[in-house]
Amino acid sequence: MMADAKAAAQEGENRKGTGKTQRNTMPRNIVPREMNPTLTTALSADVDSFLKNGFLVVEDAITHAQVESLRAALDETYARTSGGEQFIHELLEEDSRFEFLLDHPPALSRIKALLGNCIQLHSATARVTQGEVPDQGWHRDGPWPVDPNGTPYGSRPGQINCGYFLDELTEENGAIAFVRGSHRNPASPSHKPDPRPDEVRVYAKPGQAVLFDGWIYYRGVANVSGEMRRTCLMCYQNSWMKSRESFSGPVARRFREEGTDEQRLLMGAIEKW
């Protein structure tokens, strides 16, 4: 009994000596237990459509109140930081009103249905296209070569961008144009801004989200309206691919340290292996 009391007293002294409460600092395992989620009938239909076309329009992805909040946040951020540039990078660091987009269920459930549970954020970007901006050239976002069959081992890079359009797209302010099925085309696009007979123009509305493959041919059509065209772009990919952003800002660190397991995974909080 005396020995037990001495041991307890010594342990108390050891804790006091550190000046801090002892905590379990072992990192918890945030890797999902299963590669693929269980799909509903509706999600399975969305997957089939995306695999065929390379893009998908999601209805009611964000509410009217969320659209208004994002517009206000983006207008303030653009006025404060852009210097006239179209693109704002590391968007989550700019305003707390963007943060819900990281793991927003209507988009993320479909992205996980396509890429699996093991995904991370590639980048969070906004694009503000001012009036009188010419046609964008055809391009792909992903830098890697394409083979529709992947490799013999099954490897194929997966990246999906999610565009939340805060202004209704029209003939005047410019649609987003895709070439159906081009995400499996081994050839690169022409990079010219010329219209194509096989292009599909999507006139997205506020509240919708447009998911598109990182290797689909696409372009922004000219904005000749004299008004801004505003978009928030959340891009996701396989967890083992390199992200464009460093995720070194305070918001990214907070998500990695204090977020849910899914938020931590999305921000790359995986131990080296």
TrEMBL record:
Could you say which cofactors this protein requires? Fe(2+)
InterPro entries recorded: Phytyl_CoA_dOase-like (IPR008775)
Query: Which molecular-function annotations from GO does this UniProt entry contain?
Result: 2-oxoglutarate-dependent dioxygenase activity; iron ion binding
- Any matching Pfam family: PhyH
Q: Where is this region: Disordered?
A: 1-31
SUPFAM superfamilies tied to this protein: Clavaminate synthase-like (SSF51197)
**Residue spans crossing the bilayer:** none
Please identify the protein, giving its name as recorded: Phytanoyl-CoA dioxygenase
The lineage is:
Bacteria, Pseudomonadati, Pseudomonadota, Gammaproteobacteria, OMG group
